[in-house]
Amino acid sequence: MGVGFHTDALAPRGLSLRLASIIAEALADESARQDSANTFQFAFTHSVIRGRLPRSDRAASVLFERAFASRQKIVLLLIMTKADIATVLTDIGTLLELKGENPFKIRAYQAGARVLESLPEEELTQRVAAGTLGEVKGLGEALVQKITELSQTDRLEFYEKLKASIPPGLVEMLGIPGVGPKKVKALHEQLGIDSIAALQQACLAGNVATLAGFGEKTQDKILEGIRNREAYSKRHLWLEAWEVAEPILAGLRKLPEVAQAEACGSLRRKMETVGDLDFLVATNTPGPVIEWFVKHPSVKEVTAQGETKVSIRTEDGIQADLRLVPPEQFVFALHHFTGSKDHNVQMRHRALQRGLSMSEWGLVPAEGEGTAKEKAEKLGPPHDITTEAQLFQKLGLAYIPPELREGLGEIEIAESGTLPRLLEVEDIRGVFHNHTTESDGHNTLTEMTGAAQALGLAYLGIADHSKSSVQARGLDEARLLKQVKEIRALNESGAFHTHVFSGIECDILPDGQLDFADEVLAQLDYVVVSVHSVFKQSRDDMTQRIIRALENPHVTMLGHLTGRLLLEREGYGVDTEKIIDAAIANRVILELNANPYRLDLDWRHWRQAAAKGLLCSINPDAHRMAQLEFFKIGVGIARKGWLTKEQVVTTYTLEQMKQYLAAKRR
After folding, report:
1. pTM exceeds 0.90 for this model
2. What angle do CA 581, 515, 518 make, to 5 degrees?
3. Is the peptide bond before 76 cis (omega within 30 degrees of 0)?
4. Which of these, 121, 153, 122, 158, lies nearest to 142 by C-alpha position?
5. Residues in a beta bridge with 430
6. Low-confidence residues of the chain, pLDDT below 70?
């Protein structure tokens, strides 16, 4: 469903049930709804409202704060998208499987979700209105009734009753790798397990291993998944942290008492995961700022509050600190709280070599009585240091971007004046490795192309899964070649300015062979090869498996080299350096998978790899339209890996890319 608000000045963002209720209360006055002179409309999905995407409402709060501040009138509109309805149908299938329902009934809901995703949004809306949804192949009478009810009312009584009939702990157990609905059902019925805590106890007692279909290996894997869940719970994906931080930061910057505001720490340095959030504000009147901060809609509890620092915990469970400093101290505190620790230690040492003491309080003489804070207060603000660039210059350094501040040689290179010009978001011209509803994507080829064009991208590379990825509805030879024809027809139609390249994400089989024969791969514009199975091979075997795949002349790119899923599973064992050398030797591009769960290859490898001559492609691995923008996160990781525009192939113009791919195929 969408509650929407519409203005040319504000971009669409997601909204949660909590924020929606706040808005609804504010709009209770009928007169406010009737004045639509400044109406704005945007959709937020049913999945957000139901709490599946709780973090996405933070950016939306900025939009509404602006609207209320300017006294704009708002009109509520209800819109439910096909993706929202498909999510409900998929959930129903999962819940029915937990209850042990008829497999045919379960598959009907899962198939119905896929059919729905393959429909253009406009067609679904038109068919629901016209009552012709039943004409769509694969949608029976029961599914048509439920889809129509969801589309028109945003509720499905059957779904609500089904959810209420299942203990919530069973659904939570599905989040453990390797524990699917059938296993959860068995654990619940045979051992009475209804929570992750109970599951852990049963595993430690050895009871799970005794069940048919489990065994000791499965029991050990479940325990490992639970341990990882506990270890990872203290950190958050960069994107999740940013979606919480962005509206808070925007709100702080709007306050009249605030001269400057920034988010610091690992978020600013673009680390792949983030622990706590650190906000820094320059102000001479901290009181009103603190009051605004502790009352922000995202705050669940205030854990500490003083005159210059406040700590809160958000609804998403993220700890956040707000520090308030005088404007003259801001630049020093910004550098200090951005970090990293190693970078700061090296900077302080450099300052000491010049007779200076560097801290969050300022840059003051090292000698003399008093603390750094006392010296800074006594000497007053330095008139020649008001920006970080001036701070670095004072110590004989070129400006070091936050992404590089890890204590990995950036200071020495900044001293020599040879820091590279890092890649910028604006440098990206196109993206590869994107999925459609032909495999496990959620949008059609046409919808993905339209979304790419809306982002201003010159080209889009489609790469659905190959046949061995059965779990992702991988394409066989016939379906793949049919898609190639559809892509060519779409390009020839001139319907979009964005050019579409035909490709495949081809499975690397356990022996290093590819999922398709060479004569099939030769008909594609490009080929991404990836490992999707048999992760437990030895390090040497996995390395040789991937190298053999790279030696195939039809391979263009290697996808997500280590197979890691951040905060969920570690990557498989592989000799990264040997893979890099093999990629260079075979003129294969290495993907920087920009999906926030992957960000693979890790930024720590890119500097050395690019210096050897390895080319990078920043690929969003998008499975729905909105995920195409993941490439922007990839740019942050690329910058962290010291990459420049020249080292990233997706900065090529369309003509340059056509020439490159054509030369690769020869």
Report:
1. no
2. 80
3. no
4. 158
5. 459
6. 1-80, 230-233
